[in-house]
Amino acid sequence: MVLPPTVIGLVLLNTLGRNSGLGAFLWDRFNFSVIFTLTGAVIATTIVVLPIMYQGVKSAFLTIDQSLIDVAKTLSATPLQRFFRIILPNCWPVMLSGILLSFCRALGEFGATLMVAGYIQNKTDTISTSIYFLIQDGRTQMAVYLAVVNLFIGLVALLVIQLLGKKDVINK
């Protein structure tokens, strides 16, 4: 969470590139490379947002009343039953909020995805990289359009998060 996304992208580039051990293995065995692919962009973005997702899930699990889990144990509920019947139903709004925050952060990811996936138009471009390169090409109106779409998606996600927070408060 403290590393700049560009540094994460550099680490991934050195880890997954064809000259690295893992990258060479993927290329030699499967003729597959994640560098300059949409898969690489997804991997980079996932690693960048993973700390946000982790914190969201952790805080969701901490909201569970321990006495509910203890009661389920006394009633001989298995760990899977406790997880699916007690923990998940009681913390899904907080977990969904974490997922939405991670998604919003992923929409804005630029550094790691550009390092790993590059910018190949209609292949590895993301909203953020497209906006940047549209500005570079002087196509400001299209860049503004994409920025508004990105903003709209983010606002809808934040609205859902707020509604989930109010539902969570109402239920308690």
Automatic annotation (TrEMBL):
GO terms for biological process: transmembrane transport. The chain crosses the membrane at residues 33-54, 142-164. InterPro entries: MetI-like, MetI-like_sf. It comes from the Bacteria. This is ABC transmembrane type-1 domain-containing protein. Coiled coil: none annotated. Gene3D superfamilies: MetI-like. Belongs to the binding-protein-dependent transport system permease family. It is found in: Cell membrane. It is a multi-pass membrane protein. SUPFAM superfamilies: MetI-like. CDD domains: TM_PBP2 (cd06261). Its main location: membrane. Keywords: Cell membrane, Membrane, Transmembrane, Transmembrane helix, Transport.
